[in-house]
Amino acid sequence: MFILAKVLQALGLADVGFALYVGVTQPQGMANEYKFTGIGIVVFLVGYIIEGYWGSRA
Known about the structure:
By secondary structure, the chain is mostly helical. It has helices at residues 2-25, 30-54.
């Protein structure tokens, strides 16, 4: 589960980076930027929560 959590976190960060790219390159891209940023944040938080519950506990 730890690896799944890290993969989700990486995908969330990549999606936020893609959102920044979309917002900068498209003339009317602000709405899409917000949408992609929100999706990226949710995906990252799901990975963060999974890591907290089922991550490596010593």
